[in-house]
Amino acid sequence: MRIYRSLADNSSDLLYRTNLQGEIIFISQSVTKLSGYTVEEAIGMKMAEEVYLVPEEREKFTALLMEKGHVKNFEARLRRKDGSVWWASTNAHFFKDEKGEVGGVEGITRDVTELKDALDSQKDLIKQLQEALDNVQTLRGLLPICSRCKKIRDDKGYWGLLESYIETHSEAKFSHGLCPECSEELYGDKEWYKKMKGKKTDESS
To answer: Which of 80, 84, 19 is nearest to 50 (CA)?
Structure first.
């Protein structure tokens, strides 16, 4: 029995036993680190009634235990001695005494507060990203566009410039310039354009 006590006391998880009345009859030393109670203070406590923060979670735990005889990975919020709250994941089952009769409940409880906080942060981030995506305007559907002047007809039947339509229906903004082909078509015969073009050629060579 001393060997088992040593194993329990060196575990970072909380190991415990309760009698059929729900009173703690055995608990590992980790109870102090996890809950703030000493072993002496915890012995005799009705854990289910005294440390569960949310009564509905305690009732669900008890109902599952009574129905199946065991509970696996049951997550609930527990209250520390100082009133702060931590998330616990518990595996528990009924144990039998020396006579082969049900003597109470034994279980192992793990602190999963950091994991729950990380998952909550992840959910908040996903929610923020989803809200951001919902606010981004996107272009969908078939857009009638003039094959000559490239104007677009909106849903009210009016024709407008392509860039105006896109700016209205998306987050894009336009800056204007001329591609080489259009520059050549518009200003190819202008002396200033020829000089500018010649200067750029000299600089690049």
So the answer is: 80
DSSP β-bridge partners for residue 76: 88
Torsions phi, psi for 87 (to 5 deg) = -90, 130
The pLDDT of 144-171, averaged and rounded, is 68
Distance CA 196, CA 188 (A): 11
> In this structure, are residues 75 and 89 in contact, taking their beta carbons and an 8 Å threshold?
yes
pLDDT tens-digit readout, 124-155 = 878 877 776 665 555 555 667 776 676 767 66
Task: Give the Cα separation of 37 and 41 in Å (integer).
Answer: 6
User: pLDDT over 90 for what percent of the chain?
Assistant: 43
Residue 35, φ and ψ in degrees, nearest 5: -120, -15
pTM of the complete model: 0.57
* Under 8 Å between Cβ of 14 and 28: yes
- CA angle at residue 1 from 33 to 71, to 5 degrees? 60
The two structure tokens encoding residue 59: 């009732």
Tokens of residue 191, six digits: 């002396």
